[in-house]
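Onboarding guide, step 5: your first structure request.
Type a short instruction followed by the sequence, for example:

Predict the 3D structure of this protein.
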Amino acid sequence: MLRDKNLIPLSRQHQHALALCVRIDRATAAGSADLADWQAEIQQLVEQEIEIHFAAEERHVFPAAECFEELRPIVEELKAQHQTLREDFRRAAARTLTDDDLKRLATELSAHIRKEERELFESMQGKMTAEDLEAMGVALEKDLVAASACSIPRR
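The system replies with structure tokens like these:
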């Protein structure tokens, strides 16, 4: 199913995070992962995009999905994953991740994104009205655009 235009801004951000996960996987498999550099890059992506992304999902997407009883278990799982990932992001910012932690973070973040895209977003597109998707999309866009306008790259 094609992604609804109102969810595309989140899907674009998912692509950025998935690219990071793939790069981490390749570097760790090759034995060339500089842990300090990866943790700095994770911290930067979190500060510039992921914190805002998670907040927007929690403020707009998850409540919209919870209107459908069958989506509530997925939403609860995704919320719990947000909390676990936030803890990993805090550890990256503190530079306390181990090599194994870095691999696990990439695996968990990738799985989380795929669950949102393949299960939550697909189901929402099939269940929500065009008007409800549009209203959610407008609210998401406001959050994401306002946040990106305030973002100053650290590099």
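Each response can be followed by summary notes, for example: The chain is about 80% helix and 0% strand.
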